[in-house]
Amino acid sequence: MTIAVVLLVSLTFLSAGKQGRQLDPTVILISLDGFRWDFLGRAETPNLDRLVERGVRAERLVPVFPSLTFPNHYSMVTGLHPENHGIVSNTMYDPVLDARFRIGDRDAVTDGRWWGGEPLWVTAQKQGQIAASFFWPGSEAAIQGIRPNFWKRFDSRIPHRARVAQVMEWLDLAERERPTFITLYFSDVDHEAHDNDPDTAPEVDAAIARVDSAIGFLLAGLDERGITDQVNIIVVSDHGMAGRSPDRVILVDDYINIGDANVIDWTPNIALRPDENHVDEIYRALKGASPHLKVYRREEIPERFHYRDNPRITPILGIADEGWSISSHGYYDSRPDRFEGGTHGWDNQALSMGGLFVASGPAFRNGLVVSPFQNIHIYELICHVLGLEPAPNDGSIDSIRVMLRR
């Protein structure tokens, strides 16, 4: 996994709808993984365009570091930087648990011990609201002993229409059963931008069009229920994408003995837990290894990354320059083509890592373009819409209040 976008739908009242019901404030948060901020308008996107025309757009949404899928999805629903919620990468090691986490490991993904902070579905349910999730990192684990009232095991094969149909079914439930907070996730753009050139490939254009159609299915469902004018929709992504090349690979075993360090994560950030006797040696060897690799002890990592204060962050971290990858000779030599296509994870301030933000509906001003802002503020925004008291977090509603009507 790697790009991502979020659609937040807030339905405030249904009294004017065909079903004659009145909804409590309701939010649907939809992630379009891998949708870079400047992908908007690149392909045919009539449904996203509809939202832009009547709402608010950010110049770009700034991800947290590292600009990876799991850390950013979880930051958006907790308002916390990864050092504070604990999902510091897609792949990590916890020295206290003496356990590894990988996004494809079902046991780890569903283990609530990995997931710190308080995600929105927990905040909502602790305050008497109902939550549902059709995929979201963290939603399959019991966090603080709580899962969403309704949740799905991740399965990328489930068609878009089936996902949206389930959301509509949740909205059609009786008031005492109906969720006020719903998540929904699509990964098409991320997959195609990994496998192809993210800047030029027609496969990426086709994926953009597919996820736009998914938004169209949702809008059609709201139209059928007569509630479109009462719905607030926000589209965001978890990160952007940049191209890479077999000609831009740093081979670290040219500089260190890989056997002297436990490599927790490889690229574009190499996370190292060296043997105690080799920490200084490995640090010095990598520090001057390549002009395209910045190497830090954990306490030296720049403050702007908010990426020091967690034992899951390794003692040594190497960050490749945008467009560069990190590997060993054995892995690279066996298949150099692995380093074609696109990826993410680099410096979160890089333009190519920026995500999309579009908001439209009665809560939002019309025709407004706002400056780039960090995705940690989305948690407070959704709490504001739902009338929830937010848990302690690193974001602030004041940072994005300008986009709200009042």
Notes on the protein architecture:
It is a single chain. The protein is an alpha/beta fold and 406 residues long. Helix content is 25%, strand content 22%. The chain contains eleven helices and 21 strands. Strand 13 (261-265) and strand 14 form a beta hairpin. The longest helix has 23 residues, at 202-224. It starts with a strand and ends in a 20-residue tail after the last helix. The model is unreliable at 1-18 (pLDDT under 50).
Gist of the model:
By secondary structure, this protein is of the alpha/beta class. The chain is 25% helix and 22% strand. The protein is built from 11 helices and 21 strands.
SSE topology:
Elements: E1 4-11, E2 26-32, H1 46-53, E3 55-58, E4 61-62, H2 69-78, H3 82-85, E5 91-94, E6 99-102, H4 106-109, H5 120-126, E7 131-134, E8 150-151, H6 160-171, E9 181-186, H7 188-195, H8 202-224, E10 231-239, E11 242-243, E12 249-251, E13 261-265, E14 269-274, H9 279-287, E15 293-297, E16 316-320, E17 325-327, H10 329-334, E18 342-343, E19 357-360, E20 368-370, E21 373-374, H11 378-386
Parallel strand pairs: 2-9, 3-20, 4-21, 7-8, 7-9, 12-17
Antiparallel strand pairs: 1-2, 1-10, 3-19, 5-6, 10-19, 11-18, 13-14, 14-16, 15-16
Helix pairs in contact: 6-8, 7-8
- Separation, N- and C-terminal Cα atoms: 37 Å
Structural class category: alpha/beta
Task: Report the sheet-strand fraction.
Answer: 15-25%
**Largest beta sheet: strand ordering:** 8-7-9-2-1-10-19-3-20
Approximate helicity band: 10-25%
Low-confidence stretches: 1-18
Biggest sheet architecture: 9 strands, mixed
Give the rounded overall mean pLDDT: 92
Radius of gyration from the CA trace?
A: 21 Å
Count of helical segments? 11
Report the strand count: 21
Q: What coarse outline follows from CA principal-axis ratios? A: globular
